[in-house]
Structure to design on (141 residues):
């Protein structure tokens, strides 16, 4: 790697103390293969949503918040807005498919509505063609 690129990676590592190994792994191995990175994260989200207990709302909320923290961590590694939009849309889709009633409490509906707002904000920064595609996908959920 050129030295300028290595310096850039080291500066980014200094920003994240706890998760620097995962960030370094993304920067060195996954940043050039963004579609595969997104697919791997979606597979992990599928597993995490399958483990959510819908019997007790308290534990379901805790699990959903944990999944959101993990999703946000992966979004933070990638500085591409399209990756952020895809992962947030997928998170919202899996949340709706989980069978947990979003209207059962203000916490769950606030999480969902907050993600929708973040998706809209990120979509507005993309190219017009991508905006149209993502807005159609957003309307489906």
């Amino acid at each position: 790697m050129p030295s300028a690129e290595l310096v850039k990676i080291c500066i980014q590592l200094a920003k994240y103390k706890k998760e620097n190994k995962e960030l370094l792994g993304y920067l060195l191995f996954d940043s050039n293969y963004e579609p595969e990175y997104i697919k791997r994260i979606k597979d992990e989200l599928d597993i995490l949503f399958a483990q959510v207990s819908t019997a007790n709302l308290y534990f379901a909320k805790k699990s959903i918040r944990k999944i959101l923290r993990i999703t946000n961590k992966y979004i933070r590694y990638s500085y591409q807005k399209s990756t952020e939009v895809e992962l947030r849309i997928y998170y919202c889709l899996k949340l709706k498919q989980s069978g947990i009633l979003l209207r059962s409490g203000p916490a769950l509906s606030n999480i969902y509505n907050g993600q929708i707002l973040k998706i809209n904000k990120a979509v507005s920064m993309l190219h017009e063609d991508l905006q149209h595609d993502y807005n159609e996908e957003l309307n489906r959920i």
User: Anything to note?
Assistant: The chain has two domains: 1-32, 34-140.
